[in-house]
Amino acid sequence: MNFPRLFATVRYLKPEQIFYRCFYVTRKKLYPAIFKHFDETKCKTAPDGLKLQKSIDFPDSYLGGNKFVFLNIEHDFGEKINWNHPDYGKLWTYNLNYFEFLNQKNIPKEAGIALINNFTGSLQELSDGMEPYPTSLRTVNWIKFFVKNGITDKKLHAFLYFQYQCLLKDLEYHLLGNHLLENAFSLLFGAYFFQDENFYKTAKELLTKELDEQILPDGADFELSTMYHQIILFRVLDSINLVKNNPWKNGEMLDFLTKKAEIMLGWLKQMTFSDGTIPLFNDSAEGIAPASQELFDYAGSLKIKTVEKPLKESGYRKFTGKNYEIFVDAGKIGPDYIPGHAHADMLNFELHLYGAPCVVDTGTTTYQRCPRRSLERSTAAHNSVTVNNQNQSDVWGGFRVGKRAEIKIESENDNQITASHDGFGKVIHKREFVCEENRITIRDTLMPSGKGKARIHFHPSVEFSIENNTLCAGNFTVSFKNIDNIETEKFEYSLGFNKTAESKCIVVNFTNKTETVFEL
Hints:
Blueprint (H helix, E strand, L loop, with lengths): L2 H8 L4 H16 L36 E4 L2 E4 L13 H9 L10 H12 L11 H18 L4 H15 L8 H18 L2 H18 L11 H19 L9 H17 L21 H10 L14 E5 L3 E6 L19 E5 L2 E4 L11 H7 L7 E3 L7 E2 L3 E2 L5 E7 L2 E9 L2 E9 L3 E9 L3 E7 L6 E4 L2 E4 L3 E5 L3 E12 L2 E13 L1 E7 L1
Antiparallel strand pairs: 1-2, 3-4, 4-5, 5-6, 7-14, 8-9, 10-11, 11-12, 12-13, 13-20, 14-19, 15-16, 16-17, 17-20, 18-19
Helix pairs in contact: 3-5, 5-6, 5-7, 6-7, 7-8, 7-9, 9-10, 9-11, 10-11
């Protein structure tokens, strides 16, 4: 056990996280089957009349029969679905238990009901699926499916209510962050579906507190993942849909939720490339969250406007020229007490030229604790600088961060930003971006001195050659000053979870200072 690392990790936790972790672990040992006793007679059924506008369809993940595809991995269960299927990791199992396939475009009503009955009939065997996070997502998906298809089956309603009873006793105070927020969104749906005052009281209290904390003044989700921002915005929009279209509670949360959605939309609009994609900062991947344009269209159908605040508290910045868009990460590691989706990527950047990706983040392909996960969270997997092959922050264990770098923005204006961090101990890394109409200059300085490696990861579509310290591609060049040498490495670029394409990265070795200039 690495006690210094452990202390550096847990010292940031909130007291309630520690208390509830101990409480839930103890309770599970004393009452291991506490949430497996479904009694239909003690459950509610829902009144008729809940209404919802059309939401965003989920991608097809149910392929018919007992065949599914999640995270780019397809599996046919044959005769019997194993809701605890462990072969592809916990996130795959979670996705199976989310039941998002109930709200894919063309699933037959009868097939959806059969899958729900299969799940309810497996209650005594369930494990991962009854954890609060998948329960939160599943219950909302069931409600949307029930409303869309006019399903009034009392037993299905009773089992849904039973899941809410379980969730209410198992809220994720030990994790907080997006987990507790998902619990709250779900309870809001449960409250409206069953017109349950207890669910509503908890949902309102949690949503008010957590959204005020988790949505930064510039509109960003505080975990600083562009993908999770899209996911949480989707939940806020669905909640507005719910509150706006149903008279119960007289829409008392509508104004609060709408104001959050407006600035979240504004942040996402600024953080979306012109081709509709997002920079893959921190834990982000394609194919998981609704695309930005889908969210903008959904918000439009709900008559929600977009309010753009200047990019500030998130630490992200965007600069544009005649033929380029560049996003710069000058943000902190993430929220101190829940940095599980953070990467050691300060002063990273992504660049699109002529409307197409050029310099890319390597992205995220797995949440499994494995060498690949460690690599994807490392500084070397990003377009930043390493010193002595160190990570800026001690990312470990899949979702842990020990000792962490602190970042400081030293100066900025409309076309320039300079920031520094202390992630390499006595060596401070300072980076300046100067963005002109057809030129981007990046200056790196190690203070007081040091040897560094500046990496630039190129999209698989980019072909280049290097001669006399200049990289030449079809429609741009990159020149390097004050360098020791340039190396080329191969890397696996994320096309989504469990899917990669081989590409090339250049490694610029330098001493003390170097300058990189992109010219179009």
